[in-house]
Amino acid sequence: xxxxxxxxxxxxxxxITLAFRRWRxxxxxxxxxxxxxxxxxxxxxxxxxxAEQISVAEANRAGYRSREVLLDELRSRAEGEVYRIELxxxxxxxxxxxxxxxxxxxxxxxxxxxxxxxxxxRAPSGAWTCRTxxxxxxxxxxRAGDICDLVGQPEQIFKLNVRKLKSLGxxxxxRTGYRLAPRGEALLRFLRSEASGDTARQQDAGDIxxxx
Length: 212
What we know:
single chain, alpha+beta, 4-stranded antiparallel sheet, two-stranded antiparallel sheet, disordered C terminus
């Protein structure tokens, strides 16, 4: 469920507490939440309504200057039913607190490694997660279009993948480009340490001689 900037501003300051959408199938449900650029928005209720039943007061609560403007927007989408969505409290984006935390437990590291491995296994072009972390570590604040080739991905795929890492609390967006979050920095240090240990063990194994 997406909101235009002017509606996000109204949600943030508490002026907008209602939304209307024409959907084939609701994309949110009562008791759920929606992550928006201004925070995590709670969904109080979702109910199908007839467009003619929408009142002027409800249109105003949804951020429209008139009922007619809202109805015109709903009519512009020919397919689907009209739904009334009651909006609940707006809370801080939980990813912000998450990415400020360093990886502190073995269980947390294992969980992140599992999640990264699953992302890698689903990618048609092969593993990309660790390579992306390394690129963002080396090139913070650089436009996606200027560094996506370092990961071997088209710009839009690169941006999508960085957002996947962001949802794990590993990266954060800047005015231009991205950078690793503290949590991402900590995980990358662990992955580098683990890789160095594997290399050392392989070298040690190669140095072993057997008397015959």
